[in-house]
Every structure is written in C-alpha cells, then in structure tokens.
From TrEMBL:
Keywords linked to the UniProt accession: Membrane, Transmembrane, Transmembrane helix
Keyword Metal-binding: no
Top-level taxon: Bacteria
Protein name: Uncharacterized protein
Length: 274
C-alpha cells in the first residue's frame, strides 16, 4: 500500500475517532488513552519505512501523535450551541447550526493538519538521508503544527484549573518532547545530541516557570494558553536559528520586539480590577 493511501486512511480514522471520543462509552481518561494509542499506532504505521529507524521512530512520529491527541481533547470543549453571534442574540435552531458548523470546520482543519504532519514526517525521513527541496517548507509547516499542538494542550491544562505545582509539572512534561522533536529536525542527525537535550530541558523549564508565574495573574484560560504558546514560539524559534547557525542580530531584534508586544497585550488583557 502506498504511503499516500496510508496517510488518507489514518487521517479518516483519527478524524472519526475525534467524533467518537465525545460519547461516554468509557470514562474520559480511558477514551483519551485509547485514542492516544490509536494515534500512535496509525502514525507509526503510516510513516513506516525501511529508512525509519533509530531515534527517527520517536522524533518523526511524535509530531502527528501530539497533534492528534491535542485536537481530540479540545473537541469536546467546543460549545454545543451558540446563544449569540458577536453581540446579537440568535435563535435556538440557528445556534445549533452554528455549533455544528464549527465542529465540521474544526474536524476539517484537523484532517488537513494531521495529513500535513504526516507529510512533514515523511519529508524529514527522506531529508535525513539525502537532500530534498521541500525540507524548508516542511520545517515551517511542522513548526506551525507544533505551535498548534502546544496551544491546544496548554488550553486543556489551563481549563482544569489545577494548582500551580501541577501546572508546572504538566506543562514541562508536554513541552519537553515537543521542543526536542523540533530542535532535532533542524539538523536531522542520526541521534539526539547532548546539546539538543540540554536546550530542550532549558526551554521546557523556562516555559513551565513562566506558567507558574502567570498562574497568579488574573488571566483567562485563553490568554494564559496564548501567552505560553508565544513564549514557546520565541524560545524555540531563536534556538532553531541558533542550531542552524543563522542567528543574526536582526533576527534577535525581531524576536525581542515580538516578545515585548506580546507581553504588553497580556498586561492589557489581564483583569487587574477583578
């Protein structure tokens, strides 16, 4: 069977799985665990290749797995009905139709994103052996998908309203593998180097510390997750340029400006008056 057919089958099955995860045929944690297992098996099966060996089995397959799991966990949080459209009230039937349309749109975006993550994984696998022109595009798309996974997972953690200690632990546990797979993809080495591990640990620890600090701020769940995702973008983006030996002064200046703008937006959107 060709890889394209495998990609299509895996995408369809996991998209239907997202719909099924809403139905309480098992406890929530068992449904998530079952879906995660299914995502791991299908992702590995889709990307299975004689050249997919060693550490690549983990680093390449981790991106589609994380993307699928994060999307599946957020799907049940989508509103079952809309009562208003912007500031205007709408009828019950219209609200149901809009909510249904939102779910369809979400599933469509997931299907495209998951299929793209498999394509990126395949490109990384080939590029680790020989030069390929699509590598730069795969890096860009892969980074966007990783940011999406991080955002969705941070949203889930924030929605649980756990203590600051558990936030640090969960965010570190999620961030480290996401960062590590992205940093490895910069050079596509046969093994994960010590430098990749140290940098990934540092970034994951920094983001978890930021999460601990802003957990005391009067932020909404969405702003909390967006801020952490922005920190992820800045730290991982700078590190990727560093590993590729392209970290010039202009790039650093751009990231600093982005960081300042994001910080000011968070300050403005915080409910300091209670």
């Amino acid at each position: 069977m060709s890889k394209r057919r495998k990609f299509i089958i895996a995408t369809i099955v996991l998209t239907l799985g997202i719909v099924a995860i809403r139905y309480p045929f098992l406890l929530w944690r068992y449904r998530v665990a079952l879906y995660a297992l299914m995502a791991g098996v299908l992702s590995f099966w889709s990307l299975l290749d004689p050249d997919l060996k060693g550490i690549k089995r983990l680093t390449i397959t981790s991106q589609p797995v994380f993307f699928a799991i994060s999307a599946a966990m957020v799907f049940p949080l989508l509103p079952p009905i809309f009562e208003n459209f912007l500031i205007w009230p709408i009828s019950y039937d219209t609200g149901l139709i809009m909510a249904f349309g939102l779910r369809l749109l979400y599933l469509g975006i997931f299907a495209v994103g998951y299929y793209a993550s498999l394509l990126c994984g395949n490109i990384f696998n080939v590029a680790s052996i020989r030069t390929i022109q699509l590598l730069r595009a795969a890096h860009s798309v892969g980074f966007i998908l990783t940011l999406s996974s991080a955002l969705l997972l941070y949203l889930i953690i924030a929605s649980f309203h756990l203590s600051s200690f558990f936030n640090i632990f969960l965010i570190f546990a999620i961030t480290f593998p996401l960062v590590l797979s992205n940093l490895w993809a910069v050079n596509l080495t046969e093994t994960i180097g010590k430098r990749h591990i140290i940098l990934s640990l540092f970034i994951a620890l920094a983001i978890s510390q930021v999460a601990w600090a802003i957990s005391f701020w009067p932020l909404t769940v969405t702003v909390f997750a967006l801020f952490l995702t922005a920190v992820f973008y800045v730290l991982v983006g700078l590190t990727q340029y560093y590993l590729s030996e392209k970290l010039f002064a202009g790039i650093v200046r751009e990231f600093i400006i982005v960081s300042i703008i994001i910080f000011l937006l968070v300050i403005i959107n915080a409910s300091w008056t209670g």
